[in-house]
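pls read this stuff:
=====
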Amino acid sequence: MNKKILGTICSIGAAVCYGTNLLGALKLYAVGMNTGSVLLLRFGLAWCIIAIVMLVRKEKLKVTRSELRSLTGLGLLFVVSSLTLYLSFHFIEAGVASTILFVYPVMTAIIMRLFFHERQGWVTIISIVLSFIGVVLLYWNGSGQRLNTLGVVLVLLSALSYALYIIVMNRADLRMSSFKINFYVLIFCAVGNGIYLLGTRMIMGPDNGLTLPPDATAWFWAGWLAVVPAILALVMMVYAAKYIGSTPTAIMGALEPLTAVLLGILVFGEHFSANLAIGIVLILSAVILIALRPIIARHTIKK
């Protein structure tokens, strides 16, 4: 039960941290940085911090071939998920993109049912339904905006990659600390974004090459992206996926779009509507329900 509680807390923390992606990204886009540069800096700084932590902890870097394959898969999935999400911010509003991203719990549940024959209890199913309805209400906020098709496709690809990331993390036999896991994951993320940046520069010209933060404030937001939605979110995601499973972790991620909506209202002055209020209540209800699932299950068994 202690591990279940820790896993639940970590899943909530990871969702909130990951939901702050748009805050740092939009701040850096506003000063002229491109997507590849933002992500390369984010993952590069995060890797440096993780490397220092591992040096202090005196952790060994050695991994087996099987572990390296799993770590490579995790790195590739996360770089695809991050890159497509950040690119979508150029085509649709960041708050809307972060909201649509929440289809990944549904994708996770479907994949686990089709390929791993995971049974979905009534609490899980109700949580998925409540969360999905809540996100739909967050999306239909009465603005009447027509979404860019490419932006939506990019977010859906990000959601699919993130769902697969959670599943692989849960099923991979990685007997190492979360710091060591993310040490390797962040290497692949940095290299992947470096390749993307080089490719866009070669195809689209030198204006799409590496750009650095122009001032101290921009460097602060770069550090924010490295620490909060990267290191903190990834470390807590490891414990969440291992202690409570893939589907509950994904459902608890309902706090991601909730965080994005609140940031949009408080920081960017977005309109607050009745749909938003109802959507937030439904999402929080789903989160509370999934958090209480172990207690509900024990009570049902006793009966």
